[in-house]
Structures are given as C-alpha cells and as structure tokens.
Amino acid sequence: MPSASWRARLWRELLVLLAFCLLTAVMTWPWVLHLRNAVADVGDPYMIAWALWWDFHQTFSDPLHLFDANVFYPYHYTLAFSEHDYGISLLFFPLFALGVRPLTVHSVATFLGFAFCGYGAFRLTRTLTGSRGAAWVAGFVFAFIPYRFHGLGHLHYLFAGWMPLLLEALVLFALVRSRRRAAWLGAAFLMNGLTCITWMILTLVPLALTGLLLLARDPALRRDRAFWQRGAVALGAAALLLLPFLLPYYRVTVKYGLKWQDWDFAAKSPPVMSWLAADRRSKLWAGLGEQLPGGHKLFPGVLAPLLALSALRVRGTASALLLRLRGRRASEPQSGGPHEGVGVGLVWTLWGFLASLGANFFPNTLMHHYLLPYRSIHIPSRSAMVCYVGLAVLAGVGAARLARAAARSSPRVYAAVLAAVLAGLTFDLRAFPLQFERGAVYPDAVTLRLKETPMRGGLVELPSNGCCLRHRYMLRAADHGRPLVNATSSFISPLTEQINRLSNDSPIPASFLELLESTPASYLVVHNEDVSPLRREDYRSFLANAVAAKRLRFVNRFDNRDDLYAVVKTEPDARAEAPPPTELEARDWATLIEEDPVNLLTGNAEWGRALYRLHLVARGRMPRYAEFRADARTAGLGLFPGSLSSRLEFDARLAALARSWEGRGWFVEAYGRLDDAQYVARLYGNAGIEATPAERTALAEALASRAETRAGALLKVAVDPRLEERGYNRSLLLLHYFGFLRRNPNDAPDRDLEGFDFWLSNLERVGELDQITLAFRDSFEYKRIREGNK
Predict the structure, then answer these.
(1) Cβ neighbours of residue 149 under 8 Å, at least 6 residues apart?
(2) Using one digit for the tens of pLDDT, what is the confidence trace for 165-198?
(3) Euclidean distance between CA atoms 646 and 588, whole angstroms
(4) Which of 53, 219, 449, 775 is most solvent-facing, going by the fewest CB within 10 Å?
(5) How confident is the model at residue 17 (pLDDT cuts 50, 70, 90)?
(6) Helix 536-548 crosses helix 510-518 at what angle (to 10 degrees)?
(7) 3-class SS at 60?
C-alpha cells in the first residue's frame, strides 16, 4: 500500500495539474466549451487526428506494421512521412477505447497540451530552485508563450511538456543516483522521443550541455559509478525502445529519398529579427513584425524576458552555479536555489536562441549537413521551444527574486507580488478570446459507405488541388479505414504528386485514368461541391468519357453532392446502384456555353482565348459579348471539350469563321480600300505586335501572289505566339466578364473600362488568377444572376 506521504504528494501534483487546466481554460477561452470539435484550422489538425487514431487502431490490430499506414497507398512506412505522434496517442488510448471521435481526441489533447507544458515547467523550476512561487511563474510562461499559439495547429509541437520533465529527470538523477531516478530519466527520454521526434533531436545538445555543467560543478559525480552505469542502462534501454520508431524514418529516406536538403534548411532559417515578430493570435502584440520576411513568429512577450533579466542580477552567479549540488546526500532536500535555476536556464535559453537561427548560426549548418538525425529538421525556428524552457525558468527565478526583495518589509507582500506578476503575464500573453474553427467531427454518407466497401486497391478522392482538402480526406480515412492514395503530410508520395498534376490539367488527360488503373485504385470519389466552377467541365468531360468507355462505373451519389465511381479494371464486380447523373451525358461546347457562359472559362478555355484573338486582330478592339457568344456557339456546335478530334476540328472552324468575315460589310468597310501591305500593317497594328519588316513583306507578298488569302493572313496573325503571350491576361479577364457577369466590361453598372483596367493591372502585377476568379464568383452581381436563373 502506498504510504500516506506518497498519496499526499500525488494529490498535490494532481492539484497543480488541475490548476494549470483551469489556467488553460482561461487563457484559451472559449476552447474548453467546444472540446468536441475545436481546431485551429481545417488543415494539419485533421492529419494529426488521423495519426492519433491510426496509432491506437494499429496497436491493437497489427502493431508490427504500425508504420504501414492506410495513407499514400501503395507505399510502405507512410506513417514516417511525418511525426508519428505515438507518445501523445498513447496517453489518450482510453478515450479511443470509449469510442470518442478522433477529432475530439485531438481537441482534448490540444487543450491538455497547454496544461501539461505548464506542469512540466513548474516541476522543473521547483526542483531547480526550491521555490513554488518561481515554479508557478515559470509554468505560466512556458504554457502560454505566444509561440505555442503560433503552433496551435501542430499538436506534436504544442505538446512539449516532456522537454522540461526530461531536464528535471536529469537533474534529479544527478542529485540522487538511485535506480528509480534512473528509470524515470529513461522513461522521460522515451516519452519525449515518442511524443515528438523533433523535440527529441533538438533537446540532445542542451541536455548534453546541462550534463557537462553538472559534471563541472560536482567532481564526485564524475567518479560515481552508479551515475554512469545506471544512467547508461536507462538511456540505452530507452534508445532501444525508440529504435523501432526511428528506423522507419531511415527506411523512407533510403527507399524514397524523402529528406530535407541543405538549401531548404537554409531557406527556412529565420533572421534574428523574427524574435520581434508576434503571432496574430496575441491580443496585445498582434501585428508586431508583420512585415518581416519568413513568417517566423518567435516574440516571447515583454514581461518574461524582463523577469529573466532580473534573474541574471543574482550576485556571484558564475561562482555559485549549482553550488548546492556538491556533496548532497539522498536524505537532503531535493531542490536547489536560484543559482541553479539561473545556470540551467541560461544554457537552454542561449542554445535554443542560437539553434533557432538555423543556417544563420554556423554550427547548425554543420550539424544539419553531417549528422543524420538533424537532416530531419525542416524548420530550425522550432528550436525556440528549447529557448522558452530556459526563459521560463529564468523568468520564474527573476519573479521570485523580485517578490523576496519586496517582502523584506512585509512577508505578506511576497504572494501579492507573485500574483501581480501572474496578472501582468496574463495581460502580456493574452490570446483569449481565442479564435478557432469547428471541425468536421462526424463522417459523411460516402465515408460510411466506403467503410462497408471491400477494396482490392486504394481510394482516390478529388479534387486534389489543395492541402486542406487532402487533410479532410485523411480525417475521413480514420472513419472508413480504407487505403487512401492521395493524402498529405510533411512529404507526399510521387504518386500523389502525379494525381495532383494530372487531375489539375485542363482538360484532364486520359493518362489520369491510366494512372488510376495502374496504381491500382479501386474507387474514385468526386466531391462536386469542392470542384471550382472553372473546373467543372473538365471533370464532367473526363468522367463522361471514362463512364462511356466502361472504365469507370458510377456507383451512387451521396448527400446529393459526393459521387462514387468504381475503377472497373480493379473492381470488375462493383455494382451500379443508380443511373449516372444527367450531367455525365456528352454535350458540345455550344450547349455548354448556352447553359452557363462560365463554361467559356472551363474545359477548353484556349478555344475562348483563340476566338478573342481572332476578333481583336480583325476588329482592332476587344470583342463585344453578343457577337463573341454568337460566334462561340457557331464554332462550338458538335465539338466536345477534351476530345482530340474536336480540338483539331476547332482550328478548322476558326479558319472558316475568318473566311466568312471576308464578305461581311464591316470587314469590307474596314479593309476593302487597303492594298496588301496596308492590310498586313493594319492586322499587326490591331494585334499590337512589333513585326519585323521581313515578316510584313513576306506576308504581303504571299497575299499579292495569291499564295495566301486575307482570311488566312488574319488567322496567321491571330495565332502568332507573341499575341498569345501579350494578350493572355486580357483575354482571360474579358472571359471572366462574359462568363460570370454576361456583359461587356463597360456596360452598366460600369460606365467605362476603369474596373477592367484595375483588375488587369492587378492580374499582371500579382499574377494570381484564382483570386480574381473568386472575386467574380463571390460578386453580388454574379450572385444575383445565379439567383435569377434558379
């Protein structure tokens, strides 16, 4: 039976942890009210929730193949494409066993990660200094440092409580070299590595430096055989237990070449000024350093560094460093004084700061280049967490020192000063009310169907053009358990890259279907609501052709939005449960434009741009909506986007249109009185092309000799690559007006081309067509048009 004193200590520790939970509820408010579905964003938290579920699932189903996860099929060791998070999942196995949803487990773990970090720093500082007041301040600083909110979406980086606990375990073992203390040192090292490999690697150097500091201050420690033997056994056993979790990372490096290069490490290295850039969630410091390059937000607030500086004013720090460690016996108190906290705090603060600079601190470059474990460090600024461990300890020491100085006149002032310090830290580090999103906790209908569907191959989900979409597919993979092909992680598979590239081509090539068959993929899910309006025709055409060729089989539509297709080559026995949707019927370009002019921008958008160039060269101005749409209908009759034969036929239709213009009144009036040289000069002038004299002469002579017609000369200038490059942005922007707004750029509510010129300059300056597409799609004018057509 545990002794009464042991039970009392356990209850005190639980009360401290509970206190940090209450502080977390305040500092992250109102997260605690939404533990069921709160996430920082709908990206990485989804992936990490899947990883937590997979760790639990595979531990009790096939633990020897833990790293052969159900993502990035058919590759092996795919859990090692990012952090495995096993140490976090292990703590929450009971929640999974009770049937709690993966995203809810992730939300609870995120909340408790703050409290756990605070508790770890509390214990470390209490052990180093013997001061509970210093421990509370240190725990508060480490728990709610702004960088932790910056990493709110990365649970394994937020859940850093094992770092101070491992450091405390080393200090405790140096004090008392018992088997129990050695076992705790090994356990803390093991859990630090299981929780986050990045933290395991980044703490190796500061742990070694701390060990050297301990040895330097205590000669008896250097001669203590128990220290070396028991420490070696404990750490060796922990390393052996970690080995199965580390080898897969080496295997994926060798097998797939997945490693970070030196140039990438250098590119991700932050400048010193990043320590003056604050996270956007900080209520007091948001916007500080916003213009600094790199996006690294390392600002620790103001009060914690000031408290740390006050700790450095302890007289005789260098000579008194760890003085009380010397000659201490097991029966003596297991806590030190402020000098011990200052020494260890300085080691971790300075090393963490320098390591966070990455390639800007030369030793980091050497370690990254020559030491294999450091090759896995992608973003060196994460070493800031090592700095924050030391900074928290120093802040605690400084706060306790100030409180003791103030309490010389009245002992009751001590607690009041510490309370004031904590209140000041609350104001300095405040992020509440915390902004977060509500995640998709529960599976949708297609996911539940996939869970009941056996597969010979893998599952591909489209669209695959955004990480957040693939993050959601991974979360749903925790619900259906099927092998997902196109996932996302720190690294992605070459097959996923192929799927992303081919599925985002316009039109989607037939080789994408061949890729599905060769993977092999069993099923394809198309989430129609996530397909951009500009890509819908690409999808419709590809799916219609694949279904018509009997290479894809439509199974069913779920929730009136998600379509499930079987890849017939892999799943020949898959049954169709509903007829294919009507939109899979083949429709020509003319019909598509008539149904929705936005289709001018989808499918074969180059047809619209080619027609624009022909109008521009012939008329010397941008085409008008009515005339352009009429010619597009004429040219598009019977032509099906995505078909090679239709693409070839369109060129012939364009030539026929140019010939038909030769006899029209406007053409005769514009060019009838011009000789061949003047005609050619006019065409090049309309196009805005600086043609050479030789080009002009050659084309005029071809007209004079009847080797070329005027329609042929018009077409030749219209297809000139220089015009295509020069008019690319202008043509696409005009098609946005025609497709979304169904009018000319200077029609009402516009009165001139000022709006068109604004968007054109923005497009040519920034080059982000997607942003302009979203602006047109979300415009009130387009929404009114859509509502009117319902």
Answers:
(1) 279, 281, 282, 431, 434
(2) 999 999 999 999 999 999 999 999 999 999 999 9
(3) 10
(4) 219
(5) very high
(6) 60
(7) coil
Length of the chain: 790
CA distances from 507 to 503, 601, 651 (A): 9, 11, 17
Torsion region of 216: left, alpha or beta (phi above 0 gives left; psi -120 to 50 gives alpha): alpha
C-alpha to C-alpha distance for 729 and 582, rounded to whole angstroms: 34
Mean pLDDT over each residue of the chain, to the nearest integer? 90
CA 422/CA 427 separation, integer angstroms? 9
With residue 605 as reference, give the H or E element that holds it. Answer: helix 605-619
Distance CA 229, CA 232 (A): 5
* pLDDT score of 371: 81
Is the pLDDT score of 260 beyond 70? yes
DSSP class of residue 287 equals T
pLDDT of residue 660: 92
- Helix runs in 203-312, H state only: 204-217, 219-223, 225-256, 262-267, 303-311
Of the candidates 730, 658, 732, which has an alpha carbon nearest to the alpha carbon of residue 688? Answer: 730
Instruction: Kindly report which listed range (65-79, 122-136, 368-382) carries the lowest average pLDDT score.
Output: 368-382
Place of tokens 């989900």: 461
Residues 566, 575: Cα–Cα separation, whole Å: 8
- Are 167 and 96 spatial neighbours (Cβ–Cβ below 8 Å)? no
Structure tokens, 230 = 């028991």
Enter the DSSP assignment of 741: I
How far, in Å, CA of 155 to CA of 52, rounded? 10
Closest CA to 613 of 694, 684, 543: 684
Cα angle 162, 166, 168; round to 5: 120
Which string of DSSP letters, residue by residue, matches 326-386? TT--TTS-S---HHHHHHHHHHHHHHHHHHHTGGGSHHHHHHHHH-GGGGG---GGGGHHH
> In 3-state terms, what secondary structure has residue 438?
strand
| 779 contacts 740 by C-beta, under 8 angstroms | yes
CB within 8 Å of 682: residues ≥ 6 apart:
620, 670, 671, 674
